[in-house]
């Protein structure tokens, strides 16, 4: 089965968050299920710099006013298809923002072009490789099902995965004529959203199947509190909606082989983890390694509940714990965290920025990973925490609720607990969860058991990859090869 995956970021070429990890891991996870997945992404400056001897497999004379090529290149076993359109993508800054952090003003055109290119590949193929299915991720690829529905590939099934329904790709109505879609598509049954154009809405209307990244989030987005204005549409399409939890890339995230950490370790050699704890403490200038070290690796936004955590900084220090944070985002949150480090030197550490190796060290050297998100479609840092013996303390929402088993009495007695959950996302509830975690940490036997159970938990892609493969098969016409 041939599947074209379309995403705006894919690890290891370009990453700002979990979408990249998932889009990067899916091809290998699906290969063992007979799926030949190739991944289309924009040729940003950072991506072009990584290409080695790419071959041109498709050319556009005019893709939104610019010439463009699709270049194929195999990296770490994955077949990447790079949409090389310098006018659109070869510029300074990140995938979505310029060097000063402002959205590129032509993002609508940049990501419409990505979707248009995907639809063209579905129509004409790439030197004989014609996808059976197109799998689009998030709003940036949301128009792929729309272009396909209104083009020559209307019979090819499409899947749209929502990694975060808060990001919808909404633009003013003036951009609609530039999309090259029939006027009828600008309607309430198409991509029109309160007078604006919504890329995600269009995709949700037209995709053959919709998935999101955990079963709990699939239920949550059907409610006004989590649906971000699209809950009505999600409910209307409930029959096409599936919640499939993310796994982690076992090649990238394995403490036994991870080249980004000072000391490799495994369940049977957990003592070696101490060297990473020490390295982490040194890195953040912590005053010794007594007491638990809480870690946070996150975008610093309201969604992630960072403000609630900041309210508890004094309590954390009073508990005898330390807190280290890696992330960037809202300036007010960054300023508050900086102020906390100044108030509690040696106890609170903060690194502003994006640092992949440091994120690995935090998982390998921390005692607990905190994820106090107000909503969390899946969340990956708690999965990395489980794998690395960095016990998760998480809000009971979305994928966090699905992947961490709270150390309540019953779960502890049954030997299945892997972390701590709390709800609602308030300082009181989080403080209580942190206290429970600190008490457990104080008993080395209890703590070792928790780490053990977490490290043994199945956070692989095995089950989820099978579910995607089954979904693809359901969407294809029945044949002797697909009974
Ligand atoms: P989201 O996609 O909402 O940002 P996830 O938990 O799904 O949240 O994925 C976040 C991913 O980005 C994880 O791989 C995490 O380790 C990584 N990450 C987040 N912030 C940073 C940072 N400042 N430096 C390095 N990695 C980060």
Find the structural class using helix and strand composition: alpha/beta
Q: Cα distance, first to last residue?
A: 13 Å
What is the count of helical runs? 20
Mind telling me the C-alpha Rg?
23 Å
Low-confidence runs of at least 5 consecutive residues: none
Strand content: 15-25%
Remind me, CATH topology of the largest domain?
Rossmann fold
Major pleated sheet? 9 strands, mixed
The percent range for helix content is 25-40%
Please tally the β strands and state the result: 18
What is the approximate shape?
A: globular
Describe what you observe in this structure.
The protein has helices at residues 18-31, 45-48, 86-89, 107-124, 144-149, 199-206, 215-220, 224-227, 231-236, 273-283, 306-310, 313-318, 331-343, 356-365, 381-388, 398-403, 409-414, 427-441, 444-456, 462-475, and strands spanning 2-6, 36-42, 55-63, 66-75, 78-84, 133-137, 158-162, 170-171, 192-193, 196-198, 209-212, 241-243, 293-297, 322-327, 348-352, 368-371, 391-395, 420-422. It is α/β, with parallel strands linked by helices and 483 residues long. The protein folds into two domains: 2-247 and 462-475, 3-Layer(aba) Sandwich (Rossmann fold); 267-456, Glycogen Phosphorylase B (Rossmann fold, 3-Layer(aba) Sandwich). Strands 3-4-5-2-1-6-7-11-12 form a nine-stranded mixed sheet, sandwiched between helices. The protein has a six-stranded parallel sheet with strand order 15-14-13-16-17-18, sandwiched between helices. Strand 4 and strand 5 (78-84) form a beta hairpin. The longest helix is centred in the N-terminal third of the chain and has 18 residues, at 107-124. The protein is globular. The two termini are 13 Å apart. The model has no long low-confidence stretch (mean pLDDT 97). The structure holds adenosine-5'-diphosphate. Residues 17-18, 21, 164, 297-299, 326-328, 354-356, 359, 378-381 line the site of adenosine-5'-diphosphate. Adenosine-5'-diphosphate (ADP) binds at residues 17-18, 21, 164, 297-299, 326-328, 354-356, 359, 378-381.
